[in-house]
Amino acid sequence: MECSVHRVPMRHPGDASAVMRLIDDGTLAPDAIAAIFGKTEGNGCVNDFTRGYALSALSAALAPRLGIAPEAVPSRIAMVMSGGTEGGLSPHFLVFATAAGGAPRPGRKALAIGTASTGLLRPEDIGRLPQVTATAAAVYAAMNRADIADQSDVHWVQVKCPLLTSERVAEARARGARIATVDTYASMGLSRGAAALGVAAALGEVDPAGLDDAAIGCDFALWSPRASSSAGIELMHSEVVVLGNSAAWSGDRVIAHGVMRDAIDLSAVGAVLRELGFAAEAQLDPTAASRIDAVLAKAEASRRGMLRAARHIMGDDSDIQASRHARALVGGVLAAATGCTELFVSGGAEHQGPDGGGPIAVIARCP
User: Any residues with CB less than 8 A from the CB of 71 and at least 6 apart, and which?
Assistant: First the structure.
């Protein structure tokens, strides 16, 4: 099998036309699409309906091509919509497709993808150990489907997870269930954190036996260098997409990852690019940049209120939520390095990289 990646622009959250053109011009068959990541221009918070809008638009557009009802499309294709394109970030879709490829090259691994989903999560599961356990199980399943046996060959795990709303809180309370928080915004962080710890547990980055509810959203010494989780209102289960390299796959695409120790850690970006064969001493020229299919990253404002030796106010701004600042800042650093603004930068990095930093991955075509 071979995994292809297509990065296409999005004129507005309901615009699926560029994805449809890939099908209409014969670039890919609709039933070959394995996953779609979308970076939408909403606020990335609880009330960001651009995520659900984009999901609905894609489902409606793809349904006739797949011969199924629109509501069945998300069960066929893993779709992860992440809100927030602050600063110079550009709204876009990443379309991952699989098809029969040539024979794998001996001694060389190529980009592989596997998808899985958890069962429905109850409101009382969100941000708690049941969500961690369910996510870990889905990661194992996705690795198996990607034919990745070695945990070290996994370079990125994208999770779309649910959050709590006032309605979901009320429903749980009516049943006498105890929920992790009544703060719907705080539930986003707890859900992202539980999902990330599920990835970490599956990949051997933390000891599952040492995890409990109290660690989620509190013990930030526990983190994954390969997890990226995004919470949204549009689902009550978690979608998991594993990206890695496998000797069982063919093609010239590979993925590499690293960890930005803080929001301006340009050296970490350069290290990932050099691992993929780029001369990353300055901004990539257009020819080199054209080899890049996707840049994936997490962004988080440091909880200490410091960036290197200087104070930042991202966490103190009452007008703009801190994750929006962080996405814009990290997006600027990545754009300066790659010469590209269609970057999948996701805010909120609870248990995803060190405080103030976050994982980064690049998918590129290599000779």
Answer: 59
> Where are any strands of DSSP class E within 46-204?
78-83, 92-99, 110-117, 154-162
Q: Residue 79: which of 299, 232, 255 has the closest Cα?
A: 232
Is residue 163 within 8 A of residue 235, CB to CB? The reply is no
Return the pLDDT at 367.
75
Task: Give the dihedral sign, CA 334/337/341/343.
Answer: negative
Cα 83 from Cα 302, distance rounded (Å): 20
What is the H or E stretch that residue 345 is in? strand 344-347
- Predicted model pTM: 0.96
Contact 199, 139 (CB under 8 A): yes
pLDDT of amino acid 213: 97
In whole angstroms, what is the distance from residue 200 CA to residue 132 CA?
9
Tokens of 82: 């992440």
Q: Which of the following is catalytic: 160, 187, 298, 323?
A: 160
What φ, ψ does residue 69 adopt, rounded to 5°? -75, 150
Tokens in use for 359? 């994982």
On whether the CB atoms of residues 258 and 272 are closer than 8 A, the answer is yes
What are the tens digits of pLDDT across the range 8-30? 999 999 999 999 999 999 999 99
Radius of gyration of the chain (CA): 19
Mean pLDDT of the chain: 96
Count the neighbouring beta carbons within 10 Å of the beta carbon of residue 25.
8
Rounded Cα distance between 149 and 151, Å, is: 6
Q: Is 290 a catalytic residue?
A: no
- Strand partners for 6: 95
CA 263 to chain centre: 17
Q: Which of 191, 224, 230, 246 is catalytic?
A: 230
| CA–CA dist 347, 84 (Å, integer) | 8
Active site residue 17: no
* Partners of 227 in the β-ladder: 157
> d(Cα 338, Cα 288) in Å, to the nearest integer?
9
